Fold this sequence. Notes:
InterPro entries: SAM-dependent_MTases_sf, TrmK. The protein is an alpha/beta fold. The model has no long low-confidence stretch (mean pLDDT 96).
Amino acid sequence: KLSARLQLIADQLPPGCRLADIGSDHALLPVYAVKQGKASFAVAGEVNEGPYEAARRQVAESGEQSRISVRKGDGLAVITAGEVDTITIAGMGGALIVSILTSGQDKLVGVKRLVLQPNVGEEFVRSWLIEHGWYLIEEQILEEDGKIYEILTATADPESAVLNEELYQERNLGEGVVASKALLLKIGPRLIAQPSEVLLKKWQGEIAKLEKIHRQVGLSSQASSRERKSELRQEIEQLKEVW
Length: 243
Ligand code: SAM
């Protein structure tokens, strides 16, 4: 049985897809996807020896070696262009996900769907998607074992998506609060449209963290620290307006 987080990711796979799961660790997702018929073929990519060996073992135990290829390498280097139509990258920081996508851009030809689960730095991933012609079709948030996760699903097909200009257009949240594009990038244009308790909890936690940093930035008269403090204050006030 998959964790609730991996299950939500699996639910985003188009039926019968050809999947690459990058940073697959124990290859739990590819094994599940192939066994359930969600994927007809899968690549489990891993850059590190330990997780790569764990993935190989898991796939051998599942008896699915003919449909799951476990490969060692950095990011999208493990696949050839056109080999898969769906890519999942989960359980790492947003900046790392962006760097994997950027260095592997030539491998995205023919890829129709990306399912990305950054642990932090979701806004970097959203910006990358916009800059590279992808459209967010779904955003999910969940809490599991005391951690909050977001899952971003994107398509390359403009016909089946709300275009980014519209999705990230400044919008009125009511009571005079306007969400700028920067705020939508941070919180998520789809998540903010259907606020949930987990989303509220996440941002109350983020505000608390920022308040703590704000207190810790020295009270010295140094211009740089005064500037940092006022930037933080502005960010906090912006977020507090929404939550
Ligand atoms: N994707 C699984 C999940 O969500 O449960 C495993 C997440 S695990 C925390 C992150 C994995 O990404 C590690 O096994 C790590 O070795 C792998 N990884 C980190 N950077 C990578 C890269 N550039 N290419 C491939 N794998 C990478």
